[in-house]
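User: ok so my PI wants both of these folded by tonight, can you help

Assistant: No problem, let's get them done. Here's the first:
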Amino acid sequence: MVSLTVLAAVIFMAIFGAWLAPQDPFAINPSAVNQGSSAQHWLGTDEFGRDLLSRLLIGIQPTMLVAIGATAIAGVFGSLLGIAGAYGRPWLSFLIMRSVDIMLSFPPILLALLAVGFWESGVLSLAVVIGVLYIPHFARVAHSATLQVTRQEFMEAERAMGASVRRVVFTAILPNILSPLVVQATLTVAAAILLESGLSFLGLGIVPPEPSWGQMIGTARGYLAQNPMYVIWPSLLLALTVLAINVVGDRLRDILDPRLREE
């Protein structure tokens, strides 16, 4: 429940952060550079005198857009590839799953660094790049779950009745593999948030002056001596968000997996 509360607050910030911001998050004030907490700036200011609270409130929106967009891309295409690999012809299964294994052998951050160099930075490009990188994770989950489903008796009944491939996939297979895919989606959202934050930390993600928490952390490390809270606030919020999503994902796994329920 605590994690759900944190997650609900983050989503609320992502939607209404621009209206909740007490000050203009882009307004530069040279006379208030790297200040600590005050009545005017509750969480202090950054290197340009911009209000940290206001920038934190709007900084989660691009990160969540990237994470949700990437998860949607990975979920749709990865699930279809996994089903095709398990239910399709042997040569198709071999081609798909060996390609998935090759992609899984590389760390996502490495492939992301290679990919973003050829794309213009921004929310859309990051969502596409990260979404493609996590397609193999969904494909593996969908492939394993589909193999289990295809051994069930109702699948034999579908084949005996001469059901088309489309009917089998969308009425027999997909509804029965949604549980692990939902859990994988929550884990992918958390991983995508971390990956986007890492890219923004390195200056390859969200383009300034639009803020993101990872970008703020990367900038703040150069001002630790002047204003240590500058790096602590976005780091704390990022850690709490990822932790809350992972806890919710673990709980969903416990609820949706009947074997864990029995234990």
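One down. Here's the second:
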Amino acid sequence: MNLLIMGLPGAGKGTQAAKIVEQFNIAHISTGDMFRAAIGNETGLGLLAKSFMDAGNLVPDDVTNGIVKERLAQEDIKTKGFLLDGYPRTIDQAHALDQNLADLGIALDGVINISIDPAKLQERLSGRIIHKVTGETFHKVFNPPAETYNEEDYYQREDDKPESVARRLEVNIAQGQPIIDHYRTQNLVHDIDGDQDIDLVFADIEKVLSGLK
């Protein structure tokens, strides 16, 4: 099977991706792993990507798309299939992926979209607090340190503050929705309710993927 997995930050995409890869024995292709491998192997595109990263710049789409295509051309993809995680991030990357898959003679079988109300994700992501002395991590709603606690003893990372979380979700929705719409026109999108227990989410994913095999 050749799959994409999509979902907003906090939707549990990483957890479900790991379960899919283990259960269905397909190659897990994440953006970070691809870049590290290309740079470590000193491929032409890997070295080019490194030059941008070392300069503190974003890697251009054409380089990213090329690294993805190199990975998809490797032998294990032919025998095992793949789960793409963290790519495509923009509609332009989605169009490039379509072309690269066509060039390689690979068909995409499905797009798993883990869907949760953004307001609930806001609560999930902005509730993390860290104890100033011990460094222990808690959650205001799901894992509070005690029934009553002194908020002055805890702090939040900048990324966890409500305004930062809201901006991150807005950016991801703006970038991700056109991609989902693009694949929906190809009848590839399978929406999964992410607002349930982790095992129940995966059970729903299993049902979908078992029907694709």
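The chain has one domain: 2-116+171-212. The longest helix spans residues 162-184. Good luck tonight!
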